[in-house]
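From: lab user (bench 3)
To: helpdesk
Subject: output format question, protein + 4'-deoxy-4'-aminopyridoxal-5'-phosphate

Hello, I'm new to running complex predictions and I'm not sure whether the block I got back is the full result or only part of it. Here's what I submitted:
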Amino acid sequence: METQNDITRSAMGLGEWAYDRGEFVSATAPRLTLSTQGLHYGTGAFEGIRAHRRGDGLFLFRARDHYERMLRACRILRITGVPDEVDDLIGITVELLRRNGHQGGAYVRPLVHKLALMPHMPPGVSLVGVSDALSITSFGFPTSRTVPGIRCMISSWRRPPRDAFPAQVKLTGGYVNCALASDEARAAGFDDAILLDQAGNVAEASTANVFAVLDGRIATPPDTGDLLPGITRDTLMTLCREAGMDVLERPLSPADLFTADEVFLSSTGKGVVSVLSLSGRGIGSGTVGPVATRAAALYDTAKSSTDGAHPEWLTPVTPG
Ligand code: PMP
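Helpdesk reply: Thanks, we reran it on our side. This is the complete output you should expect:
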């Protein structure tokens, strides 16, 4: 008989196997206790890594960079009880994807978090005296999912300043801010939110970085701001520069976005997505623009072709 877990698993494309604290287990077997510290206090961090098809082969994209970012989060949260070598983490991920045998592409979700208070520890919020856990799940993901363009709003929620909350890694607790912003946008009939920082400059979208095309140049807020410096952001900046395009990091105001020729977002999950309107104002021609189209094409080539300019970004799972 099909259980609720089976239904959830197939609806989400969740692979049959997961990695959990040192072993490969059924992805739907409940294994965390209700007292899990990361659940109570947001003391965890995660990554989202894509694997793309090239012919019959499957290749992880920039897995090393994703795991290096996760290990930086471990340092912030004093998470020491998980594998801390990038090569080991990639090895576990490759084994997981081989076991799950997703038909198309895949999305990999590693999660590290605080687990249980040590016996001598009093209850309360703490980063020491608490055990740690690493799990990795994977989901089937269509190889290319082209989004024609989205409508965004400027969120009434601001990004927290980085002296209050580290923005440069994907800490689970920080996603409350992202959830509030995306919920507000969807409730108001938009697809996504663009959040400002405390000074009123553009920080990022709810789960993506922001680019604007101004006077023929590509601009994105500096990675010293209150934003996650995305790996897709870095990929696009690198590829566009190599293709001879002008890319600069500089503060962007909402008015810069309203008057830009194009605005587009970048993220592992969605790739390059054009913003066609912002808070009800059309941007540029109101269609997907030539710069976003070119950036998306460069990205597509880099993530699924070993003949591309950056073969070091690809890890073979099944070489095909
Ligand atoms: N900002 C936030 C808040 C995100 O959650 C994401 C998605 N990881 C991004 C930016 C884009 O980062 P990346 O390109 O590494 O996926």
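A quick orientation on your result: DSSP finds eight helices and 17 strands in the chain. Let us know if anything else is unclear.
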